[in-house]
Amino acid sequence: MSRLHWIVLSVACSGLLGLGGCGEARNSAVVTGKVTVKGQPLADIGVSFEPQGSGAGRGSFGRTDAAGQYSLNFVDNDQPGALIGKHRVTFRDLAAAAAQESDAGNLPKQTIRFPAKYMSEGLEYEVKAGTNQADFDLK
After folding, report:
1. What are phi and psi of 17, to 5 degrees?
2. Contact predicate 119/112, CB 8 Å
3. Rounded to a whole number, what is the distance in angstroms from the first to the last CA of the chain?
4. What whole-number distance in Å separates Cα of residue 93 and Cα of residue 57?
5. Model confidence, pTM
6. How do residues 87-131 score in pLDDT, each as one tens digit?
7. Which pLDDT belongs to residue 23?
8. Which end of the chain has a smaller Cβ tally under 10 Å, C or N?
9. 49 inside domain
10. Which of 45, 43, 35 lies closest to 125 in space, CA to CA?
11. CATH number for 103
């Protein structure tokens, strides 16, 4: 191949990589929502969306603020969104986890602020094209 061919090929590949987010096209959508327990917002809750099914792909994660609001970003590149399709959604009490990690065993064990089943079993949610409002009341 001539030098001109290499230059043209390099420029074309660079442009394609920039458009596709490192060369990987994702069928994704924006997901935001609110996490509550008995209607009360929960701060510092980790919300994990794990795609289900064949060829599932990368998961997404969000963290609730003081109003219980979160938005998802892909775990591998921190870009907004989640893959379109069915997901298993699990929750983690990040405030309780941080307290347990920092106390070096000196304080009483922190209780999780929602039923433990949401940490392991989770819930199912289907992400659809467009903008998704995924609210969860953990009873």
Report:
1. -65, -40
2. yes
3. 65
4. 25
5. 0.75
6. 999 999 998 876 655 555 566 566 889 999 999 999 999 999 999
7. 39
8. N
9. yes
10. 35
11. 2.60.40.1120
